Amino acid sequence: MDIGLVGLGKMGGNMRTRLRDAGHTVVGYDRNPDLADADSLAVMVDRLPSPKVVWVMVPAGDPTRDTIRELGELLGEGDLVVDGGNSKWTDDQANAAMLAEKGIGFVDCGVSGGVWGQQNGYALMCGGSDEDVAKVRPAFDALKPAEGGFVHAGKKPGAGHFAKMVHNGIEYAMMQSYAEGWELLEKADLVDNVAEVFDSWRSGTVIRSWLLDLLVAALEEDQHLDKIAGWADDSGEGRWTVQAAIDLAVPVPAIAASLFARFSSRQDDSPAMKAVAAMRNQFGGHATRTEPPVGGDAGA
């Protein structure tokens, strides 16, 4: 298929490569001309055959809202916009309504896979009508892993991003549990090699996971995480998950505690947050205040 892709950073750039490797034609636009295939959104849209499909991968909030609003002026009836960023589901509802007035379809898609997605594939959680999702299905099939990794979460706008939001809330709690266990093992004057303990858990235990693999990779490079500051940011989904849980009267104590722990990390150099920051850098290339581990970006 032919598809426009707006935003060619760490995620978007790798997605463009994976789509092209699968035989699709991608016209990419980015504010950085060194990354872009087209000089402007208008040029990108003009180069796409109708019905046009444009996938947006820019930061959530105003950058995404402004981009979709501009695309609403450039696209026409029967065209389609995919928001693959980390937008809040309520933004999806507003964007879908705005585009629907012009006869333009909308699909929201939560994307998980970080900097490893180009190689391993991306987990995709989308929301939208059956008809609109079908228009993008060739791209979904190219981006997802060979086995599984795709779900049409619901037909209402926002269903995909709501599912991705809950996924990220669970991720917060999982990382916090590993991090607290690491700090406890480090503190005890009993265990000689904490990194090997974590490595041993990767096979046969009920807590094995990709996050555990990534923490072990970080510990292999810096056994006591001395080179990394115990400071971890949050990208918004954890807050939205807790807010949604409050609105729906659903108790989420582990997720809420992990979010508050990140807030604490910005006040003190928390040892547990060294582990959280290391895992975030490993799976998503999120900045740390140190030299980067394998596959990560240097921090400030």
From TrEMBL:
Residues 160-288 form the 6-phosphogluconate dehydrogenase C-terminal domain. InterPro entries: 6-PGluconate_DH-like_C_sf, 6DGDH_YqeC, 6PGD_dom2, 6PGDH_C, 6PGDH_NADP-bd, NAD(P)-bd_dom_sf, Pgluconate_DH. SUPFAM superfamilies: 6-phosphogluconate dehydrogenase C-terminal domain-like, NAD(P)-binding Rossmann-fold domains. The keyword Oxidoreductase applies. It holds the Pfam family 6PGD. The keyword Oxidoreductase applies. Keywords: Gluconate utilization, Oxidoreductase. NCBIfam families: gnd_rel, PRK09599.1. Belongs to the 6-phosphogluconate dehydrogenase family. PANTHER family: 6-PHOSPHOGLUCONATE DEHYDROGENASE. This is Decarboxylating 6-phosphogluconate dehydrogenase.
